[in-house]
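INFO  loader      accepted 1 record
INFO  loader      residues=211
INFO  predictor   begin
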Amino acid sequence: MVSALIGELPAGWTETNLAEICELTAGAALQESPDGRTTVIKPKNLVGGRITGTFDHVSDEESGRLARYQLKPGDIACVRTGAIGRHASATSEHEGSVFGTGIIRIRPSGDVDARYLDSYLSHPAVLDWLERNAVRSPIPNVSTGVLGTLPVALAPFEVQRSIGRTLHVLNEKVAAHERIARTTAALRDATIPLLFSGTVTIAAEEESPLR
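INFO  predictor   done
INFO  writer      dumping C-alpha cells
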C-alpha cells in the first residue's frame, strides 16, 4: 500500500500534487459596479461548501476584460486569503461569474472527477495541511505555488466518480435539511408574537404540534 497525506491508500490509488492535475489561477483585481450584471465570487460567498449569499457585481465591460477569470461548471473556488480551507464547486448557475483576488480557481483536468476533488479538499488531513502551509501574517493566505504542492490521493477514475457522486448526494441532503431548518425557524419566529398577543389562539384541546 502507498503511504499518503490521508493515510495508506488502497491498491490502484496513487498520490500526486495538485498542480499536476489542475490549472490553478489566482483571482484578479476588479472594479465593481452596483448596476453590473456579472456576479463576483468572493471568500464571503463560499459557505458550507456552496457558492451562496449576497453577491457583488461588475459591468459587462469589466466582465469582458476579466474573461480569463470566469468560472465554468466543475471549477472549484478556493479561499486564498482569510478563512483558508473554505471552498466550493461551481455549477451551471455560476457559469460566467468572475472571481476576485481573495479566490484561487482550481480547474481539474479531464482525468479528475470534479466532485471527487471538491470532496477531497474537505478531508481533515487536507484541511490540516492547508492550515500548516498557509502564511500566517498578517492575514492567513496561501499562494497558487503553495496550493499546487498539495498532495492529492487519486483513485481510479470510476472510483472517483462513485465517491464524488455519493458525497454530492449527501451534501444535497444536508442543504435540503438546512433549508427546512431555516424555514421552520422563520415560521417559529413569526408565530411567537402572534401567539403571545392573542392574535392567534390555540384551542385548549389541541395537542402540541411537537407531540
